[in-house]
Amino acid sequence: MTSALLIEDLVKQFATGKPAVDGVSFDVPAGEIVVLLGPSGCGKTTTLRCVAGLEHPTGGRISIGDRVVSEPQRGLLVSPRERDIGMVFQSYAVWPHMTVRQNVAYPLKHRRKNGGGDINTKVNETLELVGLGDYAERPVTSLSGGQMQRVALARSLVYRPQLLLLDEPLSNLDAKLRIRLRDELRRILKQTGMTGLYVTHDQSEAVVLGDRIGVMKDGKLLQMAPPAEIYNRPADSFVANFTGASNILLGKVLARNGDKATIDLGAAGRIEAWTPQPLAVGDKARVALRAENVRLGEKGPANAFSGRVVERRYQGMQTVYDVELGGQRLEALELGTAARHNDGEIPLTLPPDQCWAYRDEGATSVE
């Protein structure tokens, strides 16, 4: 099946500095939602703007459906309006002098093809889809921010583009509304069968919305995988840390067996960890794990340690513990409205499958 979007070795170089996008390749099959996730300046928005035709790539090739829309080496560049895309921006970008209906109908009236059928029928169906059926005749300026973003979404969906691009569309909303619209947005896109490329720096948005997540850093795509794989099998230490594995234990590789490594943590003892990298005996390593995966008060069959709780922070729905482990520090998170552990010595288990070993940055091997 033809991908709705295919990006091959995309490069975008501005006048100075490193490339903003550096050899990025991925595809988005029809009906799938791919989220590009990363910190500011990682290249995710530039990638999306290259797909939209708002930035001109320096190299590589972009295809939408079975049509190449950008290939600098051949001097090929299709204009944004000819790419059959919809786009939802961070700002609502609605027309303030129009009603809700007029905003949503505008693309149908000004496109060469609207797919046939009555414009009002299409507008009504789309407004119902985004929950604005009762607001059609209202001035768009009378709506809340969340409602205006729904108008922007409806306007991009009404003509059923081949590809929908979304550039941090929820970032201007308050936290509670952002969570509600995040959940509804996935439902709407799946209900319409829309193919989507979504850009965000918010991990929770990426997990809820994406069929796959692509984590970017310094213009490069580090990993593209389903959310569960990104969270449970991060390809490198940056992906692990960016998605919440804030605990880092430093050690040295003692043994390697397939994708498992035994790491010497010094005074804390030895730890078994999964590793995607070709670590060798003697390499310095960083073991990453999430605070919520630390099992306080448990002595498991593997990776069982004795630590010491040095501080705890009660946060209502959860308690965060600072634990000393052989001269290194861990953060452990316990869900629930009551803290179960006191300061002092405590057994703990670090599940081997939830400990991930990576090469220590700037180090190769230890003599």
UniProtKB/TrEMBL annotation:
InterPro entries: AAA+_ATPase, ABC_transporter-like_ATP-bd, ABC_transporter-like_CS, ABC_transpr_FbpC, ABC_transpr_MalK/UgpC-like, Mo/tungstate-bd_C_term_dom, P-loop_NTPase, Transp-assoc_OB_typ2. CDD domains: ABC_Carb_Solutes_like. One of its GO terms (molecular function) is ABC-type ferric iron transporter activity. One of its GO terms (cellular component) is ATP-binding cassette (ABC) transporter complex, substrate-binding subunit-containing. It is a peripheral membrane protein. Its main location: membrane. This is ABC transporter ATP-binding protein.
